[in-house]
Amino acid sequence: MAPSEPPHSSFRAFVETLRSDGDIIEIDRSIDPHLECGAIIRKVCETNDKAPLFTNLKNAKSGFFDILGAPGSLRPKPQERFGRLARHLGMPATSSLRQISEELLKDAEKEGIEPKKVATGPRKEHVLKKGEFDITQWAAPLLHQDDGGKYLQTYGINIATTPDGSWTNWSVNRAQVHGKDSLVVYVAEPQHIWQVHEMWKKEGKDMPFAIAFGVPPPAVLASSMALPENMSEGAFIGAQLGSPLEVVKCETNDILVPATSEIVLEGVLSITETAPEGPFGEMHNYLYPGETHERPVFHVHAVTHRDNAILPVSNCGRITDETHTIFGLIKGGEMRQIAKRRGLPVLDIAVCLETQTTWAAVSIDTARVRELGWNSEKLREEVGEAIYSEKPAAPFHRLILCGPDIDIYDFQDVMFAYSTRCRPSADETVFKGKRAFVKSPLRDDSSGKVVDDALLPAEYTHGQNWKRADFNESFPESVKEKVKSEWESMGFKKWS
């Protein structure tokens, strides 16, 4: 039976849609949140399998809580590869990454619809005040054996407001269990949450703070985007939904959180007290045992949650998990916007997930390049200087320029162009002194970033003068159709 609500309206509706799609495996046997749960999620991400829903976690009280792992990773069916991500925006499961990206950017250009404050909501079905809960006894998962502790917050949204109330920031930052009523939150310069925290330091007051888990899926995307200056994350979600997002006030501070949130922790983020945070397995598939940093302590004053609450969990590491899919979706679109704003001869930009989202392929409008009279060096310089100078490109150290015959969303196609058309050194330009990504294993590398030209010389003069010796280009349509129609009857596996 189809879900009664669209998947992007609430996290509960999203879960029901995944279940209807056949994209969930419900695991009702007893699973230990100490590493076993994390191991299952990790293997799911590395094999693009169905999302695991753990309904019988050791130490979990009845109704609090289940865990949904891999909420934004890839699906096993090629035609629905990005289906889980598409469902975040209420799109068909067969949507391509480009279609999802276009929808996301289109919503960001709409007029925002500010949230609507309501008196109550499902997230207040259970209210626990300080002294009535002990976070250390919850089924918070230890996701990698060398993590610094149990991580409760990996896919929720952190919410903070400036002292004057003029700006409310939503972000996705991990948080580690610290004590029975406290967590340590990853807050680092120059994040927006860090900027708001600094404002509260100047006021000499701890920062009112909340973490909402299991929020409407567009909220996670909005919290990871560089939205227009005049649009809040809540207003973006309203524009995406076509109606105001309902929010309710916290029990112990004035922070407003989505009314349908599965779980909410509220209190204050200390401006003076810190504790060691980390290490944690990162999106580039590295973990540095023993590496910790002092981060602010979140003192939890109250917990509210729904009946049969579900905690979404992202377990970072080797491709492909949410840190790759969502990061790649958003950053590819933002870099495409930069190219458009700068007037570059760029048709599209796609992040190469297979590189742990450190490379991006750039589709070049070669006809316009010829009109401009640019050579390879000029094109590399213009593209690299424009893209690498802005924040969205910080995580990337290689841009591969491709002609229009290359499908930049097909990594094999990109590698075909890169390996057969780009001459080492001769077709490369290195850019030094550009913004680095704080979580990259190459963050201290001084060798810089590179733009590789994978266009053939003819594309700068008169256009394509070759054909490819592959199935699509080397046979007439009649022959291809006959082969396709008889493929399985000849004994081959299903056509793809």
Automatic annotation (TrEMBL):
Keywords: Cytoplasm, Decarboxylase, Lyase, Manganese, Metal-binding
EC number in record: 4.1.1.102
Positions contributing to Mn(2+) binding: 169, 192, 233
Domain 3-octaprenyl-4-hydroxybenzoate carboxy-lyase-like Rift-related per the UniProt entry, residue ranges: 118-318
Co-factor requirement: Mn(2+); prenylated FMN
3-octaprenyl-4-hydroxybenzoate carboxy-lyase-like N-terminal domain ranges (all copies): 15-104
Record: active site: 282
Transmembrane segments: none
Catalyzed reactions per annotation: (E)-cinnamate + H(+) = styrene + CO2; (E)-ferulate + H(+) = 2-methoxy-4-vinylphenol + CO2; (E)-4-coumarate + H(+) = 4-vinylphenol + CO2
Location relative to the cell: Cytoplasm
Main location: cytoplasm
InterPro entries in UniProt: FDC-like, UbiD, UbiD-like_C, UbiD-like_N, UbiD_Rift_dom
Domain 3-octaprenyl-4-hydroxybenzoate carboxy-lyase-like C-terminal: 324-453
Record flagged with keyword Manganese: yes
Cofactor note: Binds 1 prenylated FMN per subunit.
Amino-acid positions noted as binding prenylated FMN in the UniProt annotation, renumbered to this chain: 169-174, 191-192, 233, 391
Gene3D superfamilies from the UniProt entry: 1.20.5.4570, UbiD C-terminal domain-like
Extent of the signal sequence: none
Family per similarity comment: Belongs to the UbiD family. UbiD-like/FDC subfamily.
Role description: Catalyzes the reversible decarboxylation of aromatic carboxylic acids like ferulic acid, p-coumaric acid or cinnamic acid, producing the corresponding vinyl derivatives 4-vinylphenol, 4-vinylguaiacol, and styrene, respectively, which play the role of aroma metabolites.
Name of the protein: Ferulic acid decarboxylase 1
